[in-house]
Design goal:
By secondary structure, this protein is of the alpha/beta class. The protein is 48% helix and 13% strand. The chain contains 19 helices and 13 strands. Helix 3 packs across helix 15. It is elongated, with a radius of gyration of 26 Å.
């Protein structure tokens, strides 16, 4: 799964004592998304083995833009937006590792105090006061342009129609300086990144080897130098980029991707991908995963492996409450038996979901049901709603609606408050009496 420089030396380096490991997070959005799970879980594995971990937010490098993996030039981000995103990501990363620690202690019987705390830093801290001339004299002199041009991220862009601008060309120097700064001040010796970051990380290693930008610190006096560790860019078996659902990102923030959407994203994993994902995104022992896969293959129609994957990753990211809400929402929207559901459970499980609509009692009980369905967007018009009733395709609480003039009553609602209205097989509207 990973590629590293000097793998045997890296193993020896990690076995000697606790180390400091870092991964960078670009502030291109205000939330973490499913694609971030790969570097975050890599950091988590190091953390659980007693190493110190650093999540570095690119508050400075985000103002420049990383050309890696792109054929076209990035638009420069607004400085205020980058700062806002960085503050949101700081809180998001802290939440992730707090919840992940709870998940890990439950799965591996690890004592919480034994897990080192994550350090969340922002590289604007050291770049904001760095003088350009000083940077060129102290850092630029250690790099040769022919080597910089040879990096895949640069070469690919130079061969593209747009080429590469000078700002993006110098990005690798900024990321190199990040690694050096963490090496100098935190004793950080390992950087984790996607495979598209290989060239940028190597630039950091070169700077650590060559650079003596300030007085020599304890970390620099060590015989150990830096190490690069990269993970492949993850795609599904169909070749799509991991972390997208119908073209949209799956966020780790429940206000952007509901518990249900997050859970369902992993539940829809194909058989071709599920074994790999169980190993990558959970802390289940390999032996248990092999047992799960064996049971799954004997009854693939039950999708047991996908269900366990969805439960484990939701538990990792959103905890017990999030998993419980995802299961309730799944039962509401895809189940047949509502008898065990309570109104408060349904409302909590669909919080922030646009299909959840609150109605006044007057609207709920005086409007015709087909009109309610049309008014709240389940169907495009009242006539379309009436036609669907005639075709037998409109349901309330899984019961077909036969009368186009049907009005809801309190007795017909779940727990006296909720009506789950369905059009066809998979379009839903959940009406709640205020």
């Amino acid at each position: 799964m990973t590629t590293s420089v000097r793998p045997h030396e890296l193993n020896s380096h990690l076995e000697k004592c606790s180390r400091t490991v870092y991964a960078g997070i670009d502030p291109t959005a205000k939330s973490l998304h499913a694609g971030h799970l790969i570097p975050l879980l890599c950091l988590l594995h190091f953390q659980l083995r007693g190493n110190k971990i650093v999540a570095l937010i690119g508050g400075a490098t985000g103002l420049v833009g990383d050309p890696s993996g792109r054929l076209t030039e990035r638009e420069l981000s607004d400085a205020a937006q980058v700062e806002f995103n960085a503050s949101k990501l700081t809180a998001a990363i802290s939440r992730f590792f707090s919840q992940a620690a709870l998940y890990a202690t439950a799965k591996r019987s690890i004592q919480r105090p034994a897990i080192p705390e994550v350090q969340i830093l922002n590289n604007i801290t050291w770049f904001k006061d760095l003088n350009l001339l000083d940077f060129l004299r102290s850092t630029g002199t250690h790099f040769r342009v022919n080597q910089m041009v040879a990096r895949d991220s640069v070469r690919t862009r130079m061969n593209a129609q747009q080429g590469i601008n000078f700002t993006e060309f110098t990005y690798q120097l900024l990321q190199a300086y990040d690694f050096y700064e963490l090496y100098r001040t935190k004793g950080c010796t390992v950087q984790i990144g996607g495979s598209d970051q290989w060239g940028n990380i190597l630039s950091g290693l070169e700077l650590i080897d060559k650079g003596r930008l300030a007085s020599i610190s304890v970390a620099e006096q060590s015989e150990q130098k830096g190490f690069a560790l990269t993970t492949p860019l993850l795609t599904t078996s169909s070749g799509e980029k991991f972390g997208k659902s119908a073209g949209n990102a799956i966020w780790l923030d429940e206000s952007l991707s509901s518990y249900l959407d997050f859970y369902q994203f992993f539940l829809r994993t194909t058989d071709a991908d599920v074994v790999k994902y169980l190993k990558m995104f959970t802390l289940l022992p390999v032996e248990e995963i092999e047992s799960i896969v064996k049971d799954h293959k004997s009854r693939p129609e039950h999708r047991m492996a996908q269900r366990i994957l969805a439960e484990e990753v939701t538990l990792l990211v959103h905890g017990e409450d999030g998993l419980r809400a995802a299961k309730v929402a799944t039962k509401v929207l895809f189940g047949a038996d509502y008898s065990s559901l309570r109104a408060d459970q349904i409302i909590k499980s669909l919080r922030n979901d646009p299909r959840l609509v609150f109605c006044s009692e007057d609207e709920m009980f005086t409007e015709l049901l087909p009109n309610l369905a049309a008014h709240h967007g389940l169907l495009p018009s009242k006539s379309a709603a009436r036609q669907l009733v005639s075709a037998g395709g409109l349901y309330v609480n899984n019961t077909p609606v036969r009368d186009p003039r049907l009005r809801l009553t309190r007795e017909s609602l779940l727990d006296g408050r909720v009506a789950v209205v369905r059009a066809g097989k998979d379009k839903h509207l959940v009406l709640v009496s205020k």
